[in-house]
Fold this sequence. Notes:
The protein is built from 16 helices and 13 strands. It has about 325 residues and is of the alpha/beta class. It has a five-stranded mixed beta sheet with strand order 7-6-8-5-9. It has a four-stranded mixed beta sheet with strand order 2-1-3-11, with helices on both faces. Strands 4-12 form a two-stranded antiparallel sheet. It is globular, with a radius of gyration of 22 Å. The chain starts with a helix and ends with a helix.
Amino acid sequence: MIKKILFLALVLMAILVSGCGESKKILNVSYDPTRELYAVYNKKFKAYMNDGEIVLTQSHGGSGKQAQAVIDGLEADVVTLALAYDVMKIEKAGLINAGWQKNFPTNSSPYTSTIVFLVRNGNPKNISDWQDLTRDDIEIVMPNPKTSGAAQWGYLAAWEVANRNFNGDENKVREYMKKLFENVVALDSGARGSTISFVNQKIGDVLISWENEALLSVQENPDEYEIITPSLSILAEPSVAVVDKVVDKKGTRKLATEYLKYLYSYEGQEIAAQNFYRPRNEKLLEKYNYIFKPLNLFTIDEAFGGWQNAHDEHFADGATFDQIYYN
């Protein structure tokens, strides 16, 4: 009888131990335009890990909405979002540990992008720079800064350019931004939705867009669209993080960490470049210099003192964007 009890105890212990092992299923909650990037990346990562049992799933949408979904219970093992503030929101909700930007190189931003203008072939409205976006004959398509990371980067780029052009006169900057948003004829929830409005539904004269999204549109429709690179824009740094509370609950920390680390490998960086994201790897950036032209960029830290300040001043409820757009 004692032997039988001991045997059953050992079997139960074995089951419990096996149940505490690393899971091989992870969810990457990402933003709109990364669909194509991670479709390729996931296949390469599984081959790299040489493990057919790994299951990688994706969720895409406007970056702000995706962050809120994670806070509300969507169990992401990793997030690959459009901006650091969206990860910071998840951190504040207690799901990501403090110091996450130090867990991976380059402040946990494995690739970069910027904001450009996508116009119809031949540039029929002769749009050349930010000042043209407030003309009476221009119709703009862009995402909503309340839900989209691309829109926040675009808003901040426009604000800082106007700030420099008007020598810091905030009243004139606000007038410029108000006129720009009066010209917006489609304000979608995410960047991909805005691309669909502009490209598929033929709405508007110009799309304020991620560089990677604009390059993809030109690749798919080379005779219909072209890119206008403004004289000054913002360095956009999408952020990645392991969602600590989820991976510890599910037993996926090791796999989730490897998944994000691989973004910094040569192969991961090349996948990013081939999907029109600017790689951090300088050799690859040089290799793809026929795609990625030199740009005049400023950073969010230089212009706004970081994401917390930018959010509080411009995107919090009742802040500058609400004042400009709704009043």
